[in-house]
Amino acid sequence: MSYVVSPFEVASEVLPAPAKVRFVHLMSGIATRHSDTIDAIFRVNGRRVTVSIWCQAVNDLRQRDGKYLSDQQLADIAALHLRRTLEAGYDPTETELFIDDVTLRRLGRELGYL
């Protein structure tokens, strides 16, 4: 499957130059890392950064609200979360970010998916 998340640059307070971000792929963390997440893999200035979306948050959206997010929408949400985190001064040497239920709902609403 192919997802379209255009490469982007983000100015960060902790970096001397804008961070160059490229989406790599979306995969299940359940099989690969034994974590209950859907992982969006990015390269930030060439370094791997994983944005992990808690599977229970996605499941709660389906069960409680009847809302379904596509893989493309999850990739978009992960990209927005990474962008916002970088803008806030995140150090990309940390290699994993997490998206919980509250954050997933907030970003999904902001993108018009919920």
Protein described:
- By secondary structure, the chain is α+β, with helices and mostly antiparallel strands.
- It has one domain (8-110).
- The chain is built from four helices and five strands.
- A five-stranded mixed beta sheet has the order 1-2-3-4-5.
- A hairpin with an 8-residue loop joins strand 1 (8-10) and strand 2.
- The longest helix is centred in the last third of the chain and has 17 residues, at 71-87.
- It is globular and about 45 Å long.
- The model has no long low-confidence stretch (mean pLDDT 89).
How is the topology of this model organized?
Blueprint: E1 8-10, E2 19-28, H1 29-33, E3 37-44, E4 47-54, H2 55-65, H3 71-87, E5 96-99, H4 101-110
Parallel strand pairs: 4-5
Antiparallel strand pairs: 1-2, 2-3, 3-4
Whole-number radius of gyration?
A: 14 Å
The parts where pLDDT drops under 50 for at least 5 residues are: none
Total domain modules: 1
Number of strands: 5
Give the helix tally: 4
State the helicity in percent bands.
Answer: 25-40%
Instruction: Report the principal-axis shape.
Output: globular
> Quick check: average pLDDT?
89
The secondary-structure element order is: EEHEEHHEH
Strand content range: 25-35%
Mind summarizing the main beta sheet? 5 strands, mixed
Biggest β-sheet: strands ordered side by side in the sheet: 1-2-3-4-5
